[in-house]
Write a structure and sequence with these properties.
9 helices; 357 residues; binds 2-OXO-4-methylpentanoic acid
Length: 357
Amino acid sequence: MAEFSLTRTTHPTSPAVRQAALADPGFGRHYVDHMVVIDYVEGDGWQDPRILPMSDWSLHPAAAVLHYGQEIFEGLKAYRRDDDSIWLFRPDRNAARFVNSARRLGMAELPEDLFVEAVERIVALERDWVPAGENEQSLYIRPFMIASEALLGVREAKSYRFSVICTPVGPYYSEPVKLWITPNYTRAAIGGTGEAKCGGNYAASLVATEEAYANGCGQVLWTDGAEHKWVEECGTMNVMFVTADGELLTPSLGSILPGVTRDSILKLADAHGLKAVERPISVDEVLDGVESGQIAEVFACGTAAVVTPIVGFNSPQRGVAVVGDGQPGPKTEEIRRHLVDIQFGRAEDTFGWTRRV
Ligand code: COI
């Protein structure tokens, strides 16, 4: 256990204001009263783990993150169960992915146990901010790290700041989503940063998302950078296909985000009579399959989005394609329910994924 110091805010949110926030949390609209901060300096290592009142930061205008985008982040949630206990879901997986992202971005590696401890400490302190769990509300936890060294030369920075902030949230998508197959943009390329959870991947996605909106869709279906032929992921989530012959198909890892929800759902597939298959999937296979009924259901998955039904596609080559009858499919609903029930302690956690705070 690391020594964390705690400086309490002198202006805590009043219970009435917090209750109002929890009643309609949105996503990232309200923040808890404290944050974790741990700094890293090359040669000295990780310094002075502390919990501070939530506040603005001061950064040197030459801080490397502001110029060259050395930034990584994670997303996980804390769930309040019916007995009022608070639980995390597979925080060790986020900690491990954070190390991989740091390696790819040439950043300092935060020890995995320190990551998990930081998350547990802030959630324990802010447990009153964890919503009651109705409508699948939870506390979204955002660990992140920036290069803090003032540096205009392009090289790996020598100082970093790790922080954890939290926000109560409801569902990220309130409705099923249609996907735009963009001919113009790519999220990742072989050898790029597709597997890392870094801010730059999301910055580069924004213009394509606007293109999706302009074409009547809520998100982008990303395809490979070389040929625009192979499906990668969608929006900020992984994508899965339920086939008519009982497979749960998803693109192999490589240039996509190795999602914790993705991994969990692949492990749950069996319990739903589905065979989990990870392999390259072409856009033509998807659109032909949707047209013929061979692909019966499509859904996206991620921490924020949980399991979001995909009910249609649009593309310049093939126009609009509707999945099934245009409604969320039964396997999608079942899998979503199973996952959420494990998270909220209503279904047996046979894999040992949940961790009490
Ligand atoms: C998450 O699911 O945690 C994400 O990272 C999505 C977020 C960018 C909204």
